[in-house]
Amino acid sequence: MSKILFTDAQVKKLKKNKWIKNITNKGITYTNEFKYKLVKECENYNKFPQDVFSECGIEPEIVGIIRIQNCAYRWRKQLKSTGEIIDTRKTKSGRTLERELSDKEKLERAEAKIKLLEAENELLKKNELIEMGIVTDIKSISNLKQ
Predict the structure, then answer these.
(1) What pLDDT, in 10s, does the model give residues 7-42?
(2) pLDDT of residue 53
(3) Three-class secondary structure of residue 113 per DSSP
(4) 20: which strand partners?
(5) For the chain, how are helix, strand and coil distributed in percent, rounded to 5?
């Protein structure tokens, strides 16, 4: 994501554009039609991406040349590899594991999760005791064996 933030006036102006699905001060979501249009028109270097943006009423000075170039690169790459351009911000967040976990690794992860849940349980119990007024001294909580 770019460090450039859009002003409220820029957001208001760009929100009216038919090629923009959504815009906030931090980012823009373009329509799928616009993405395909840009990739098609930039094929074989017929046009530059910023020219397509300008023709569609999206000012490159507002959006930023680097952001435009990154979008064009990402959309071309995605179309070439998968045959379609889709927004993957929600589906591909985080790093995925490309191999199958061994039984030992699965067991270690399960044990770590159990430890975390037990610690959360203890914290909730201690918090409940404090709220009920049974325990007033925080040091005495750590001495409780429940």
Answers:
(1) 999 999 999 999 999 999 988 999 999 999 999 999
(2) 93
(3) helix
(4) 30
(5) 60, 5, 35
What's the CA gap between 128 and 122, in Å, rounded? 10
30, 85 Cβ separation under 8 angstroms: no
86-99 burial string, b = 16+ CB within 10 Å, else e? eeeeeeeeeeeeee
Look at the block and give the residue holding tokens 């770019």: 2
DSSP state of 146: -
Contact at 8 Å (CB) between 128 and 146? no
pLDDT digits (tens, 9 = 90+) for 83-139: 888 887 767 666 667 788 899 999 999 999 999 999 999 989 888 888 887 766 666
Place of tokens 């952001």: 67
Cβ–Cβ < 8 Å for 28, 22: yes
